[in-house]
């Protein structure tokens, strides 16, 4: 496994990490959840990503069960939670001081932990002033409840405003942004967020690096019944466009030429970008974790001419 510092912090995070959206506590049984997490830990993955919203707490409870069973030393792994909403009542959502503090405590209870390494604002909350967020996150750091904080899918201007408040008030600003990034979704990491990488050293914990499995090649010849897109909602299936499937087919052929899996090509491509601190994968089976974790050692396989061929597959010249 390869380890990278998370933004400008000193925290060493594995280049591949493991998330829990739609899987643990929801569609994956407890024994398989444990097998996936153990496969990850054995492969050197040290970061497990949770959120209060995943299965309304069920994902974090499932991960907590595994932490209790396996007994890994707490100083060997990193855990996150993300806050945005956990119930229908007005105070059960948003990024107010009340909900941030209560959500952090609830995540700790669900996972049986004393502190979270990372706490994210899962989505912007237009009703909470940014000052309130910066100050509350710093209070949580002071109280030893969290070590670092960040955002997910915040605009570059909002993240910049968070840094400005932190600088003005001599507080700790966001360390990382969690955003969608893959061969099929590059706009934010390669565009909007660039000035923040340069100026503040913003870290990124990118998600859906395999486009929820589309970039494994498993949809090249149809819809496998036991797959995320077969079981998923309409908004997900809409991404199975003929154009995306054609790109996946051509990328699979390139991966075959290199003697690696399509999933590994997709993840190694993400990790070629130095602004990616870690790529958070999802998994429903331990074999997927092992296959994907191995990609961290494959960035050298993507030589400049291979990167160019990938670009041509992603943006074929008009009429091609
Ligand atoms: N901050 C946010 O808003 C946000 C949003 C989304 C996700 N996330 C985080 O990022 C994590 C990863 O997101 P994601 O699940 O979309 O990631 P992903 O890695 O793009 O897709 C994961 C899914 O692809 C399939 N898969 C993975 N590896 C495979 C392999 N080697 N061969 C075949 N199929 C494979 C599995 O689904 P099947 O086996 O069911 O097909 C797996 O659940 C989440 O768990 C969550 O922690 C955050």
CA gyration radius, whole angstroms: 19 Å
> What fraction of the residues are assigned to beta strands by DSSP?
5-15%
Count of structural domains? 1
**Which CATH C-level class is it?**
Alpha Beta
Number of strands: 10
Mean pLDDT: 96
Quaternary assembly: single chain
- H-E string: EEEHEHEHEHEHEHHEHHHHEHH
Cofactors, ions, other ligands = NADP nicotinamide-adenine-dinucleotide phosphate
Question: Can you offer a commentary on this structure?
Answer:
- The chain contains 13 helices and 10 strands.
- With 320 residues, the chain is of the alpha/beta class.
- The protein has a single domain (3-216, 269-299), classed as TIM Barrel (Alpha-Beta Barrel), CATH 3.20.20.
- The strands form 2 sheets. Strands 3-4-5-6-7-8-9-10 form an 8-stranded parallel β-barrel, surrounded by 4 helices.
- Helix 1 (30-42) packs across helix 2 and helix 1 packs parallel to helix 12 (286-293).
- The longest helix has 17 residues, at 242-258.
- The chain is globular, with a radius of gyration of 19 Å.
- It binds NADP nicotinamide-adenine-dinucleotide phosphate (NAP).
Features:
alpha/beta; eight-stranded parallel beta barrel; TIM Barrel; binds NADP nicotinamide-adenine-dinucleotide phosphate
What's this entry about, in short?
The chain is 42% helix and 14% strand. By secondary structure, it is α/β, with parallel strands linked by helices.
Write the layout of secondary structure elements.
Elements: E1 3-5, E2 12-14, E3 16-19, H1 30-42, E4 47-49, H2 58-70, E5 78-83, H3 97-111, E6 116-121, H4 130-142, E7 146-152, H5 156-168, E8 176-178, H6 187-192, H7 194-200, E9 203-207, H8 228-231, H9 234-237, H10 242-258, H11 262-271, E10 278-281, H12 286-293, H13 304-314
Parallel strand pairs: 3-4, 3-10, 4-5, 5-6, 6-7, 7-8, 8-9, 9-10
Antiparallel strand pairs: 1-2
Helix pairs in contact: 1-2, 1-12, 4-5, 10-13
The structure holds NADP nicotinamide-adenine-dinucleotide phosphate.
């Amino acid at each position: 496994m390869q380890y990278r510092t998370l933004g400008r912090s000193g925290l060493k995070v594995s280049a591949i990490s493991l998330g829990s959206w739609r899987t643990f506590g929801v569609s994956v049984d407890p024994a398989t959840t444990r097998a996936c997490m153990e496969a990850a830990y054995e492969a050197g993955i040290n970061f497990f990503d949770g959120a209060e919203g995943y299965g309304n707490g069920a994902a974090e409870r499932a991960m907590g069960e595994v932490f209790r069973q396996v007994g890994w030393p707490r100083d060997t792994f990193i855990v996150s939670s993300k806050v945005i909403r956990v119930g229908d009542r007005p105070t059960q959502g948003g990024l107010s001081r009340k909900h941030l503090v209560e959500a952090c405590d609830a995540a700790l209870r669900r996972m049986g932990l004393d502190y979270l390494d990372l706490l994210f604002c899962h989505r912007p909350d237009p009703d909470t002033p940014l000052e309130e967020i910066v100050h509350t996150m710093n209070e949580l750091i002071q109280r030893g409840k969290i070590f670092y904080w960040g955002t997910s899918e915040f605009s570059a201007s909002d993240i910049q405003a968070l840094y400005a408040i932190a600088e003005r008030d001599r507080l700790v600003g966001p360390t990382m942004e969690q955003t969608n990034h893959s061969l099929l979704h590059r706009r934010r990491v390669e565009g909007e967020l660039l000035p923040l990488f340069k100026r503040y050293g913003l870290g990124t914990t990118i998600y859906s690096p395999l486009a929820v499995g589309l970039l494994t090649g498993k949809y090249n010849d149809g819809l496998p019944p036991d797959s995320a897109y077969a079981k998923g909602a309409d908004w997900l299936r809409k991404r199975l466009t003929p154009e995306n499937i054609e790109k996946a087919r051509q990328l699979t052929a390139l991966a075959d030429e290199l003697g690696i899996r399509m999933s590994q090509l997709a993840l190694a491509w993400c990790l070629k970008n130095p602004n990616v601190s870690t790529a958070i994968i999802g998994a429903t089976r331990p074999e997927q974790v092992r296959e994907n974790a191995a990609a961290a050692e494959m960035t050298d396989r993507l030589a400049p001419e291979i990167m160019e061929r990938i670009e041509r597959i992603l943006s074929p010249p008009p009429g091609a």
